Automatic annotation (TrEMBL):
Residues that span the membrane, as ranges: 468-490
Protein name as annotated: Leucine rich repeat, Ig-like and transmembrane domains 2
Residue span(s) of domain Ig-like: 253-345
Skewed-composition ranges (Basic and acidic residues): 534-555
Taxon lineage: Eukaryota, Metazoa, Chordata, Craniata, Vertebrata
Signal peptide residues on this chain, from the entry's feature table: 1-19
Keywords on record: Disulfide bond, Immunoglobulin domain, Leucine-rich repeat, Membrane, Repeat, Signal, Transmembrane, Transmembrane helix
Stored Gene3D superfamilies: Immunoglobulins, Ribonuclease Inhibitor
Coiled coil (UniProt feature): none
Amino acid sequence: MDPICHIFLLLLAFHKINASVSSCVTGCSCFQDSFGRSLLCMSALLRQIPASIPQDMRKIRIENSHLTELPRGSFENVSALEYLWLNFNNITVMHIKSLEYLPALKELRLQGNKLSSVPWTVFQDTPALKILDLKHNRLDVLPEHALRYLPNLTYLDLSSNQLTVISRDVFYNWPVYQRSQRVEGQIEAISNAVLALHDNPWICDCRLRGFVQFIKSVGPPIILMNSYLTCSSPKFRAGKFFHEVELNSCMKPLTSALDTNLTVPVGLNVTLTCFVQASPSPAVWWTYALKLLRAFNVSTEPISEETVRSELLIPAARPADAGNYTCTAANFLGNTSVSISLRVGAPWASTTSPDWAPIAPAELGAHVEVRIAKQTVYGITLEWFAAAAAAAEPGETWYTLLVGRYDAVQKDAIYIGPGVNTYSVTDLLPATKYEVCVAVRNQAPRKGQCVVFVTGSDVSQLEQREKLIHIIVIVCAMVLAVPAGMYACTAEARPGCLARCPGACPRRRRQGQAQGAGSKESTLDSLPAGSEDGLCRPEGGRGGRRPPAREEPGKTRPPHRNSADLY
């Protein structure tokens, strides 16, 4: 029994030693380095945090894998973990308890993932955390209490994210900053904290005012890795450094209009204008009879740092366009609006013929000739030529294209830039009557500048017509390609003649040798059309052909003609 017991004990000891040495995650490697026992996983096949991580690990490095989330209790079996590197994965979600049971964690690196937000209260479970690396993610929001649970942080990297606006209270609530602002006399050793915030698309308006002031005044123990933070918008501040801009306080929109009651004649282009003073820049829109007007008739542009101008264009005003138009502006502080009343009265007096459309006196001479270049079932292609005053500056002339059903009161307006004299109108209804007008911009269309047409009703008829035209063209080409001489020979020669030709050929060959080279020049073009004579001769000699006459020495022979000469 004693030898058996010894062998059993040796096997048991070997098993324990081997288990402790080879215990590692499949597809990963375990080794000892300066950090302690470490786990390295660089496998692209890894899609979740391994469940069998050895408990004695001090450092875990999982990179270039397909991790997409950190679920609750991801590292509950490795409570001694101090360094966690999860760079360059596809992590998009962190559970609020994903770092639970990691009181000794000192370093967390999540660079190059796809995090758009972080549950900042997750760091309640990591009071010893000193390094937090979140660069090259998609963070766009930083709550005011984001740094409250990071009292011992010495390095925070938020660079290369999507941060646009943050409050200075984010850093005022940071225990590291609060310790640095204590009154004199309370001497305490404070470690420096490096802060990286560069390469974010900062919006430098009133909302960023407090943060810009914080960046300008910050100093040790908080050290900026790159103090030259730059503005990305608005356009007039893009590329400027924070220390170059002065931002004002935010202001609720204030709208106004130069004239709130307008009366215009029929056919005149009308532009309604409102001014908005606000900070930050507001969103502006126009409504008519509680309906939102389409954006391509509205233009909004800044005229100063805190003032924008919005214009609504109504082309060729008609009585149906009369009513109240409302300009509304809004930002995060609130909204306000102003109404403009429009009345469309009688047309301008005109000295032109009664058949011509009424226009303003200033528009006389600005005429555009319009024609249809192509028409399909669902649309047309227009071409126009500007004459008289409209053609004086062709490189700067804009046009207005009015499109709509013939019986429609209001038509859609399309603006065509300089140098363009053709436009295709598509997506129309079949078998419908439409009207299209072209006029110089800010002018009403005149006689000859409008085209009335009816779209097609049957696509198959058009397609059959096109196919018939193609077949006719192909047949004509084939007929013209056949030589006329060959066509006459093959059309009128009888089949019986061809059967007698082999017997006559030997005699013809002998006669040809005695006559010389002159007879060799004969071609099918020289044969008399519609006759068998000359093609072959019968055995009995009837119907024979006269022998060819000898050439006279002084007589010139006419030049040879081939089939191409017939054309």
